[in-house]
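Deliverable D5.2: sample structural annotation.
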Amino acid sequence: MKRVFIIVLDSCGIGEAPDAAAFGDEGSNTLKSAAKAEGFAMPNMAKLGLFNIDGIDWHEGVVQPEGAYARLTEASMGKDTTIGHWEMAGLISPDPMPTFPEGFPKEVMAEFEKETGRGWLVNKPYSGTTVINEYGDEHVKTGKLIVYTSADSVFQIAAHEDIVPCEQLYEYCRIARKILKGKYAVGRVIARPFIGSGNGNYTRTPRRHDFSLEPTGVTILDQIKEAGMEVLSVGKIKDIFAGRGITDFVYTQNNAEGIDRTIEWMDRDFEGLCFTNLVDTDMIYGHRRDIQGYGDALSYFDKKLGEMLKKLRGEDLLIMTADHGCDPGFTKTTDHTREYVPFVACGAKAFLPAGNYGTRASFADLGATVLKYLGIEQKTGGSALV
């Protein structure tokens, strides 16, 4: 019974990509910055070959890595969650998703206001934590929704949970998702609920929800499901793929819960894929440029990885990777960074022997490798590592 576990350490890039300058991200290196955190330690990932990957010359590798490892290059024109995950699932996006650095057009906002029956505030790029503290009081007073974007292809709606209950906020997001089509088809509409007592004293809650654009082509999730196997989603994977190709799922509130749910599902009998996203490294630490928090999160994952390694069965393949960078030490912006991402795998050694698989041309090589292991004819992009 072949099982594949993919764990995405959200935004854990490993150094600037060849085209980083085109994105304004020269010098970015998420993992290197996170490694500066006090107490940083990833002995399990190191043992598998993380620090032996091409280009990592700032941290000593091990003499004989026990895993398969490689450096993946993003072929898609973007550096966001949706494009990154789609590409690792075999769907390369040659055209960037639309962004709105000046805010969304009047016609979009007018239709949004008409359909929701609520006014709006802001409509421009903003830090999510800053925008609720600067506009939260006005939102609470007027009931107007806080709408903002970022350098990513996103339409974000923030609302206080006492003013707009989460289910109502999710419905507003569904309305926005229907409006944002064609040239306005952003990758994600994101619900950003928050709480707080006023006077700029607001904090976001874990009840965020993403409403993604449906994948524009075939993914490995589609193929695995069509082959009669299971595709299990942990965290926001279901949202990223708009539910397509998923056979079972569980949402999580933080990395700790995502790791625990994955460990629990390692005891489940199934054939196919378990796909996990651990978002805290990006959402809580990367964007907030918190080096210590980022390093602590990676160290915690590595500690729990020890438990996962003990649960691996003979035909299991475990892969750790990332979807883009978000360097906590990068000072030019608080946005994602255009970086290589790691591929670190173990298990199924008869299929994927330990060793260095070099620098790959696309994240899609990961998905191609998964399909080959599961014995499914590939209809996606990418080339299998073996």
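Annotation notes: Residues 54 and 355 are 12 Å apart (CA to CA). The longest strand covers residues 188-198.
The annotation will be released with the project's public dataset once the embargo ends.
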